[in-house]
Amino acid sequence: MEFAFYICALVAVLTTLRVITHTNPVHALLYLIISLLAIAGVFFSLGAYFAGALEIIVYAGAIMVLFVFVVMMLNLGNSVVQQEREWLKPQLWIGPGILSAILLAVLVYAILSLNDQGIDGTAIDAKQVGIALFGPYVLAVELASMLLLAGLIVAFHLGREDRAGEVLSNRQADMATKRKPEEHV
Q1: Phi, psi of 51 (to 5 degrees)
Q2: DSSP-derived secondary structure letter, 170
Q3: 46 near 130, Cβ under 8 Å?
Q4: CA–CA separation, 35 vs 76, rounded Å?
Q5: Distance (Å, rounded) from C-alpha 175 to C-alpha 185?
Q6: Would you say 38 and 15 are in contact if contact means Cβ atoms under 8 Å apart?
Q7: Within 10 Å of residue 43's Cβ, how many Cβ atoms?
Q8: pLDDT the model gives residue 32
Q9: Residue 138, CA distances (Å) to 125, 135, 150 in order
Q10: Which residues contact 27 (CB under 8 A, 6 or more apart)?
Q11: Mean pLDDT per segment of 10 residues, for the chain of length 185 residues?
Q12: Distances (CA, A) of 62 to 55, 56, 59
């Protein structure tokens, strides 16, 4: 499992650097998803299976959907249609594809080399999870939620257009696309 830990850690560091250095928000989100999955791999390799599962379900699943909605909320308009066509070229997907394949190979290796750790299979209900998360780990949970909220606010402010004295819905381009009231008959 030491091999899986180092490979997942390396993939997490590389993809996190790509998240920071990439200027395209959609590509940065793809690398962030891979980074979160790699961190889940680190948790699994350390034997923290529940933390790894929560990492995949909560962060790589729910939080990334929230970030995708923020990117959609940025409303880049019609000017990026050609750019979106460029994103569909295979050479842009090679980097995330290779890193995802490495994570898949590490996951298959870890599953095949797994021996019985003595998991008894008792069910844990939601109340016990809540007590554990909001008991001794309440500070970590609250700090993570504040960090995610700050990230959403930064993404919104970086992506919006600055036009002094103009509300986004009052732009001339937006007004031309709206239907006039007399057309609603």
Answers
A1: -65, -35
A2: G
A3: no
A4: 25
A5: 19
A6: yes
A7: 19
A8: 85
A9: 18, 6, 18
A10: 18, 87, 92, 96
A11: 85 89 79 86 82 80 74 63 70 81 83 68 79 78 77 71 57 55 52
A12: 10, 9, 6
- If residue 7 lies in a helix (H) or strand (E), which one and from where to where? helix 2-21
Q: Rounded distance, CA 174 to CA 166, Å?
A: 12
DSSP notation for 49-117: HHHHHHIIIIIIIIIHHHHHHHHHHT--GGGGHHHHHHHTSGGGSHHHHHHHHHHHHHHHHHHHT----
Residue 106: CB atoms within 10 A of its CB come to 21
CB atoms within 10 A of CB 156: 13
Residue 39, burial from CB neighbour count under 10 angstroms (0-12, 13-18, 19+): buried
d(CA 90, CA 133): 42
Q: Quick one: which of 150, 148, 172, 151 has its CA closest to 161?
A: 172
**Exposure letters 1-35 (e unless 16+ CB within 10 A, then b):** eeebbebbeebbebbbebbeebeebebbbbbbbbb
